[in-house]
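Severity: low
Component: inverse-folding endpoint
Summary: output formatting inconsistent between runs
Steps to reproduce: submit the following structure tokens with default settings.
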């Protein structure tokens, strides 16, 4: 079972790294999942992730107080606006735009109501 948890954790880290360059793929939720999986499989991998220079502070902020750093909030807002703007420019059907607007508004509401890290 430890191998399954570790494999899922590594998959989540890979998806998070891809999410750094792709605006449609979130980074932090995959890192939080990776921390969850590593905590159940490998203390070495879990400690590596928590002490990572780039990833560790985001995970620790979330674990300690459910906080998201202001820079991450702004980056998420820009990404969401870009995705929605791209949909408008590409003339997505109205029902798709409405669904996107509702879902992305909910995501922004969650992000901006979290405390600052």
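Observed output (run 2 of 3):
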């Amino acid at each position: 079972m430890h191998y399954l948890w570790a494999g899922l954790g590594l998959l989540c880290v890979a998806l998070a790294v891809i999410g750094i360059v792709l605006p449609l793929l979130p980074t932090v939720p995959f890192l939080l999942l990776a921390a969850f999986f590593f905590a159940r499989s490998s203390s070495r991998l879990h400690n590596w992730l928590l002490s990572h220079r780039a990833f560790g502070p985001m995970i620790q902020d979330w674990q300690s107080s459910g906080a998201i750093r202001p820079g991450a909030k702004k980056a998420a807002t820009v990404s969401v606006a870009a995705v929605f703007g791209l949909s408008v420019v590409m003339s997505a059907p109205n029902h798709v735009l409405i669904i996107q607007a509702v879902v992305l508004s909910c995501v922004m509401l969650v992000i901006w109501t979290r405390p600052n890290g």
